Amino acid sequence: MSTVTTIKRGGLTAAIDSMGAQLTSLALDGNEYLWQGDPAFWGKHAPILFPIVGSLRNNTATSAAGTCEMPRHGLARIVEHKLVEVSEDGSSVTYEITDTPESLKAFPFHFKLNMTYALTGDATLTQTFAVTNTGDVDLPFSVGGHPAFNVPAPGAEDETFEDYELAFTEAWTNEAPIITPDGLMTFEGSYKAPDNSDVLPITHHSFDNDAIMFTDTPGSTLTLRGRKSGHGVKIDFEGFKYIGVWSAANDAPFVALEPWTGHSTVDTEDDVFEHKVNTITLAPGETDKRTFEVTLL
Q1: Which range marks the domain in which residue 154 is found?
Q2: In the prediction, which pLDDT does 193 show?
Q3: Residue 169, pLDDT score
Q4: Which long-range contacts (CB under 8 A, 24 or more apart) does 86-89 make?
Q5: Long-range contacts of 111-115 (CB under 8 A, 24+ apart)
Q6: pLDDT tens digits for 232-256?
Q7: Element (H, E) at 105
Q8: What is the spatial distance between Cα 208 and Cα 200, in angstroms, rounded to a whole number?
Q9: Highest mean pLDDT among 7-21, 51-65, 168-182
Q10: For residues 157 and 253, what is the distance between their CA atoms, to the nearest angstrom?
């Protein structure tokens, strides 16, 4: 049975469910910023993505260790995680999963994944992925976050979804691939920022083709904010190659900001797991750490 652990620092609180080690609340002075999982729109909050981000073609790939067969975004989000540490001051918590006989049927590699949530500022949550290769062959994988935030944000209830925008530190001039109906990536008909601006207004129709995946971003900071109030969230994702932005296609009142190290299979690539673009490869005994920060505005 899953349990929820709450961490605190001043007026900032976060709650994490051991099922999936998923963040389920992020509140400042009692004001909830994290999407609360209304199943009428999307019944999750902030799943963690491992050992894949996005989808494999037909949910299957081959590998040097055997067949990989996993649902979208992998296995970590759908299993119970062990609580291994709570800091003395109650401001951080760490969870762990390792490979099991069941996981090896879907992903034939040995691993350990530690997820740490730490309140590191008056309004900042730091989330750290630590992946260790506990096997005797190379471990290929991707990791990612998927936190979704209420739009409008607390303190900006007079704003609408269309009053919100995405802001980079400078102009983003690249084209973003599009997610196909079967969950793969394609660069045909790709998304391009209007006027090569550092600020991108959003509407519900911005997500008609699923998530927008920004590549080669200028800097490693993205802000979701109301144009009038300035309220929202800022995410710092250094160490993650991509940032995905998504909302459900049913006028859902949230936006997810998703740091990724990899992505779905590209429609032009093969189905060998180790060949997936930007897959991380860990030698036996090595550990890879990736961190992103969310600051409430």
Answers
A1: 4-296
A2: 64
A3: 87
A4: 86/5, 86/7, 87/7, 87/118, 89/9
A5: 111/51, 111/135, 111/139, 111/141, 113/50, 113/76, 114/84, 115/21, 115/48, 115/81
A6: 999 999 989 999 999 998 899 999 9
A7: helix 101-106
A8: 16
A9: 7-21
A10: 12
What is the full DSSP assignment across 31-56?
EE-B----TTT-S-S---BBS-SS--
Dist. CA 9–CA 147, nearest whole Å: 20
The half-sphere exposure of 141 on its side-chain side, counting CA atoms within 13 A, is 29
How many domains, the chain? Answer: 1
Is residue 195 very low, low, confident or very high in pLDDT (cuts 50, 70, 90)?
A: low
- Residue holding tokens 């900071």? 221
For residue 139, give every residue at least 6 positions away whose Cβ sits within 8 Å of its Cβ, in sequence order, or none. 109, 110, 111, 131, 133, 281, 282, 284
The per-residue pLDDT for 148 is 99
Q: 286 φ, ψ to 5°?
A: -85, 155
* The predicted structure's pLDDT at residue 194: 64
Let me know: does 212 contact 293? Beta carbons within 8 Å.
no
Buried b (16+ CB within 10 A) or exposed e, 143-168: bbbbbbbbbbbbbbeebebebbbbbb
Q: Does the pLDDT of residue 14 top 80, yes or no?
A: yes
The CATH number assigned to the domain holding 200 equals 2.70.98.10
> Is the previous residue joined to 284 through a cis bond, with omega within 30 degrees of 0?
no
Structure tokens of 188? 């045909």
CA distance 58 to 114: 28
